[in-house]
Amino acid sequence: MHESAYEITTLTPQQPTPGHPGMLPAEIPPGVQMVTLPGGIRTLAYTPQQAPPAPSVPVAQPIPTWAKTTALLTPTIGGGIAAAGIGLSYAAPGLIAMSEALWAAVALIAAAAIGVPMLLRIGRSAAGGGRGSTHITQNITATGMFGKATGTINHR
User: Fold this and answer.
1) By three-state DSSP, how is residue 42 classified?
2) CA-to-CA distance for 24 and 43, rounded, in angstroms?
3) Cα–Cα distance, 64 to 51 (Å, whole number)
4) How far apart are CA 85 and CA 77, in angstroms?
5) Measured distance CA(83)–CA(86) in Å, rounded
6) Do residues 29 and 60 touch, judged by C-beta distance below 8 A?
7) What is the pTM of this model?
8) Residues 144-153: pLDDT tens digits?
9) CA 138 to CA 135: how far, in whole Å?
10) What is the mean pLDDT of residues 109-128?
11) Residue 152's beta-bridge partner residues?
């Protein structure tokens, strides 16, 4: 253990300080610091100047596998996105034409859904010549879930 050539003395809070109740932090001279003694008393003392600790040398860490994989896949993914963009730019006129053709097909289907029943109704009324409509009654019976079904059809 290191022995000091000087004895450190302190004043306890019960003892009056001669002339000055305490020091401001700006009044503390360089090299003097507030220290806590083994008995728990805090006091000002000269402390030896210690050299700052040497900076630690960083140790090279291995590159994780996921980072290597990501680094290798990044150009591939970027190239795929670029190729898709170029392909879409070449396909755009064809896609626009197909879109217009699909809208035309939708309009044709809608017109057929409305027009065909109307044409059939007109055709029936003209061909029937005022005759009443035909009624067909069908009776089907079956026994059990997988039984054979039998039925009758009645024309009126």
Assistant:
1) strand
2) 14
3) 37
4) 12
5) 5
6) no
7) 0.29
8) 777 887 877 7
9) 10
10) 84
11) 139
